[in-house]
Amino acid sequence: MLMDFLQVGLYGVVLGSILTLGAIGVSLIYGILRFAHFAHGDLMALGAYFALSLVVGLGFPVWASAPFAIVAAALAAIAIDQIVYRRLRRVEPVILLISSFGIAIALRSIIQLVWGPHNQVYVKGIQMPWRVGDLIVKPDHVWIVLGAVVLVIALHLFLTRTKTGKAMRAMSDNMDLALVSGIPAERVIMATWAVGGGLAAVAGIFLAMDTRLHPVMGWSVLLPVFAAAILGGIGRPYGAIAGGMVIGMAMELSTMIIDPTYKPAVAFGLMVLMLIVRPQGLFKGNA
Amino acid sequence: MEWAGLLTYGVFFVTVAGIYAVLTLGLNVQFGFTGQINIGIAGFFAVGAYTSAILTTAASDHHLGGFGLPFPIGVAGAMVASALVAVVIGWVTMRLRTDYLAIATIGIAEIIRLALKNEEWLTNGVRGVPAIPRPFSETLEFDTLAGLAGLLPDPLEATVLEVLSGPLGAAVLEVLSGPLVSLVVVLVFLALAWWMVERARVSPWGRVLRAIRENEDGVRAAGKDVVRCRLQAFVLGSAIMGMAGALYANFVGFISPEAFLPLYGTFLVWVMLIAGGAGNNTGALVGAFVIWLLWSATQFLTDALGAEYATQAGALRVLLIGVLLQVILILRPQGLVPENGRKGRH
């Protein structure tokens, strides 16, 4: 029983790492542009498929294709923002939300057009797991958790040590004050999309390593990602880490009691609970 | 023969467009009047469809019920069930920014879809609910008409019965109990939905909703219960979506979870409302018919490409509609039929 618990907890950490990387992007974008970016899940999927092209087309290992996928997804996010969202920024944020819902659907059909509608994997065959005592640890799981930790530390350094990162936090905390103090808003917004898109690509690749690639993989993970962002306090990237871990853990641990198909319902339930008792989230976001 | 085929297609087209128009009117109450974002339309639509299906089908071992109740009760049940789901979601999110409602509706739609797939005792799972009766088809069967003829004076009754039993009668019965009845039923309910929503729009309550959309704090300062009005609007809109679900189930005759993917149930309806003109009920109707026409027209594109490229063509159609939404949002955000007093961006 204890071993089961630890084993499932391990899966929870893996899922939590993936959700965290997605939720950080959602939270950053919400903090600065003030809208829930519904295309984020499909941006994750796009990143995962970019990596697939390198893995299948050029025979790259997954880890080596990741940097290219990150850059490509970041560029895609900036391009979407420049072509579509930028033109809608002057109107109410709800219009941006609807627009991003349309972008989500459009990205998914692009993925279907380019890469096909079927399930795909990076590496065929079964990975030999490591045994630590009675625990079964897949190497991929270790890479996912380590990768997430490294990226979160890098993000922390970026937000606290660089000028752009500080400007992002300033805009998120108090938009008017930040603009009055001469922060170049458009440049910071582009940086936000680059960071959000890059992290989304990694989250997508990790998700694909953990499960498989499929055109709707992004949409189906959108709810847990938002649940994580809300739990941590939307607009607070550090909260997203806590939110991601709590949601990931809860979703996996719930499989010991209820039907695993209802995992998204667990994320939803936690989110609803949070909205009732503390809508601003654990870390006091911009509710 | 060709004309008959075209006519059948025309009847089918208007029926489906009419169902979409009901959905679009429901969304108009939520988004157009009140500024609420519902990304879970497919969920409310599905709740309505399944509720009506379970209420109106004959008893079955494969799913809950069926209770074999008449169609109007199915519609009423569908509206009540959708409204109940809306009350729960609304109660949690009405105090917060509409972004939270949007996320919560995604969640509830996803959970409804999972439940439809997995709770076999309730919905027969992925195999779906078959044999949902068409509305009022039983009233137009031979026996009922013959019974009605019995009310007529004797010589006339004999003539009517003779005609009914003949080939002409058979043809008339075929058309009456077929798609034409569904079309009329859908149009009647569309008119009903339109009447409700239009009355709501011009009423003082409708003005409060629009005021909430424009300036929430102002409305609160004027002493109105913002949360309550918003919740009422959300529930009304969702009930109308439930009605559309009942119409769909009883028109198609078979429903399965596949029919309620977010793409058809939610995305198309959003494009319809935005294209037609959010806030304007005429706009909602126009949008529903125009976008359904466009969407059906792209079906010919799929046919032209051939079965070989069916999946790609399907994805291309969706992509085109997705791009169309962005173009409308950027170039003509007020839609084809703008709301009164609104010009350009809002």
From TrEMBL, chain A:
InterPro entries xrefs: ABC_transp_permease, BCAA_transport_permease
Gene Ontology CC: plasma membrane
Tagged with keyword Glycosyltransferase: no
Membrane topology category: Multi-pass membrane protein
Record field: transmembrane: 6-31, 94-115, 141-159, 188-207, 264-283
Main location: membrane
Single GO BP term: L-alanine transport
Location(s) in or outside the cell: Cell membrane
GO molecular function: L-isoleucine transmembrane transporter activity; L-leucine transmembrane transporter activity; L-phenylalanine transmembrane transporter activity; L-valine transmembrane transporter activity
Highest taxon, organism lineage: Bacteria
Keywords for this protein: Amino-acid transport, Cell inner membrane, Cell membrane, Membrane, Transmembrane, Transmembrane helix, Transport
Similarity-based family: Belongs to the binding-protein-dependent transport system permease family. LivHM subfamily.
Protein name as it appears in the record: Branched-chain amino acid transport system permease protein/neutral amino acid transport system permease protein
Organism listed in the record: Roseospira visakhapatnamensis
